[in-house]
């Protein structure tokens, strides 16, 4: 436990779900006094047992910052209630959409000088306090949306919160925020679900031919439908706009392929055009360390499915002075071995390959 | 080099691209005599230099099996030409669609007793002979489509080929094959491209909020548009059918979200229904070792971005007798550390977590 950050010695977390409890745990690691509240007494108790703080008793001294970690549609009412009782000097929230809670807060007559809307981009496939982790925000973007009325001290309090949690503060307009998460999170989730939905009634033969590509495309479709329905409801119009554009592109591609199937071979150009735009968009997604995508060299090695095989491999890399930037194991279905794909700086690739070969690995 | 397999001592590979050259390399490892042909003399030379075999001289003794590894629309003509000169006793191909080349072969009057259409499911994001690897088929499905006229010896020759390459033979009707790959490969590729295409014109702010979810959904969209246009052209109708269904689901979801945005809150049920079907489909995709998806326990540990950190971690796992089934490094953008997600048998999770903690790792 180190000392508390400047200006942030006590925090109230309202809503001890995954995100609220994770924030509380991160703050506790820095010695911040954390108070916990949730309409579910069991959730508060669990969070407390995890070391996230103590149960909040309304009516005491105002805390420095209240973090409203409840679903988007309940943020404004909580903000109003907390402000009425002077629960905190400053307020923020963590909802996955920003225009809706801000508009509702204005409508309810909340004090907008002490409130800064926020959104840590730290989703996990699990939910609830038991899945909480203090490190879940490390290096992740944390959007915050100061308005024209917001006081400088309120902004400073939220920046302190983000810093204590290890997040990467990104100032963004609330409408731009919602359009952005529609593009990079909400609409891709629905599209992945639509692709996965086709497999629900597919033959076992078809599933038997599935490979890593479709696994990647559909991985997020395993998320909780109820949780995602709430997220999508809160960002309905921006997500609808993206999905309409995706649906149109797919309908155009389907029509072009229908034309190809009756010998209009030139129609494939309309599909190629979409694939090229896909290339362009995919290449813009930032890679490791948040910078522009950087091309690592990939060294592949066949590894057996035995304890210690990868340990020996990484030991050889260490002895050769090579830092492995990323590793992915591709297991061969039905066989006790797999290919390890080791991402390294391009100049280190040959060094690593030589070292692995010298120690008996098959490096193609 | 071990001895040749029963009944397969010489093979002709026509088309020394990625798949053809990989097959040749796999056969060479078993001592099979391999002849190479390609309309591009440079590709044959490169394959030869990689140790894939010797250049084919037409007019010699028939080989046991000819593997036609050319794009789908050229398979039947090559088959006819090879059969006219008695180049081989049996014939197969490796094209990613099966109904088209079979129909064209019948139409051209090819001998259908000696030909078995085939398709190894071993795509890679790269192409050309330089990317070839003998191990690319290990444990992967390899579809083959015997017809009513196919001789038992022709089937045996293709099964020997699949065995020598380490593939997992899957007998399938050609039309069912094409519908299957439309579902599990071709349509997901186009859908991923359509999602990625939305990012081509997106703001830098939006891209800055991108996380691992959209990276997974769009990864395959980085594939070569020209190559994929050929693949999609050859399977146009089945892919169009899947894309039409996906586009309809997305249009329905978009319309439901539009209704939600004007306060028809019940409309979200139509989105939830799609998300649930997505859950059901996603859960059917086979995991590691080709079996039904098995739940591994995931142990997470924070690792520094330094040479040897993962080596030490795997060493600890080995010393604890724990086999790491899969590993995924999630690097924290902007920070020199990341979270390693280690998949292990559920009963080994606590053993590994304890061992890592005892050696100073932060295991949440």
Automatic annotation (TrEMBL), chains A, B:
Q: Which Pfam families match?
A: PDH_C, PDH_N
Question: What InterPro entries does this protein's entry cite?
Answer: 6-PGluconate_DH-like_C_sf, ACT-like_dom_sf, NAD(P)-bd_dom_sf, PDH_C, PDH_N, Preph/Arog_dehydrog, Prephen_DH
SUPFAM superfamilies, from UniProt?
6-phosphogluconate dehydrogenase C-terminal domain-like, ACT-like, NAD(P)-binding Rossmann-fold domains
Q: Which Gene3D superfamilies match?
A: 3.30.70.260, 6-phosphogluconate dehydrogenase C-terminal like domain, NAD(P)-binding Rossmann-like Domain
Limits of the Prephenate/arogenate dehydrogenase domain = 9-290
Q: What domain of life does the UniProt record list for this protein's source?
A: Bacteria
**Associated pathway:** Amino-acid biosynthesis
Q: Which UniProt keywords apply?
A: Amino-acid biosynthesis, Aromatic amino acid biosynthesis, Oxidoreductase
* PANTHER family in UniProt: PREPHENATE DEHYDROGENASE, PREPHENATE DEHYDROGENASE [NADP(+)]
Q: Which family does it belong to?
A: Belongs to the prephenate/arogenate dehydrogenase family.
Q: Write down what this protein is called.
A: Prephenate dehydrogenase
Protein source organism: Sphaerisporangium flaviroseum
């Amino acid at each position: 436990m180190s000392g508390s950050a400047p200006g942030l010695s006590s925090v109230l977390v309202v809503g001890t779900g995954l995100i609220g409890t994770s924030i509380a745990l991160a703050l506790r690691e820095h010695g911040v006094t954390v108070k916990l509240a949730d309409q579910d007494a069991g959730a508060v108790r669990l969070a407390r047992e995890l070391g996230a703080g103590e149960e909040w008793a309304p009516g005491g001294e105002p805390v420095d910052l209240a973090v409203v970690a409840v679903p988007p549609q309940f943020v404004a009412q909580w903000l109003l209630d907390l402000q009425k009782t002077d629960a905190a000097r400053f307020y923020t929230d963590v909802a996955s959409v920003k225009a809706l809670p801000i508009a509702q807060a204005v409508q309810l007559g909340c004090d907008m000088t002490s409130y800064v809307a926020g959104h840590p981009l730290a989703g996990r496939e699990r939910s609830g306090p038991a899945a909480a982790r203090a490190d879940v925000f490390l290096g992740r973007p944390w959007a915050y949306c100061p308005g024209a009325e917001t006081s400088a001290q309120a902004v400073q309090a939220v920046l302190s919160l983000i810093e204590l949690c290890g997040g990467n503060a990104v100032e963004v307009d609330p409408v731009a925020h919602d359009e952005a998460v529609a593009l990079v999170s909400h609409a891709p989730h629905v599209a992945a679900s639509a692709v996965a939905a086709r497999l629900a009634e597919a033959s076992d033969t078809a599933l038997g031919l599935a490979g890593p590509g479709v696994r990647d495309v559909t991985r997020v479709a395993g998320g909780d439908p109820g949780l995602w329905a709430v997220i999508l409801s809160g960002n309905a119009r921006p997500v609808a706009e993206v999905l309409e554009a995706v649906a149109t592109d797919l309908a155009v591609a389907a029509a072009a392929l229908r034309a190809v199937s009756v010998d209009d071979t030139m129609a494939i150009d309309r599909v190629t055009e979409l694939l090229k735009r896909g290339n362009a968009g995919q290449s813009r997604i930032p890679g490791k360390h948040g910078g522009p995508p950087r091309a690592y060299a990939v060294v592949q090695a066949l590894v057996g499915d035995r304890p210690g095989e990868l340990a020996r491999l990484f030991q050889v890399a260490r002895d050769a002075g090579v830092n492995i930037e990323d590793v992915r194991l591709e297991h061969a279905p039905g066989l006790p071995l797999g290919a390890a794909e080791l991402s390294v700086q391009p100049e280190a690739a040959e060094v690593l390959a030589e070292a692995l070969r010298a120690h008996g690995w098959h490096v193609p």
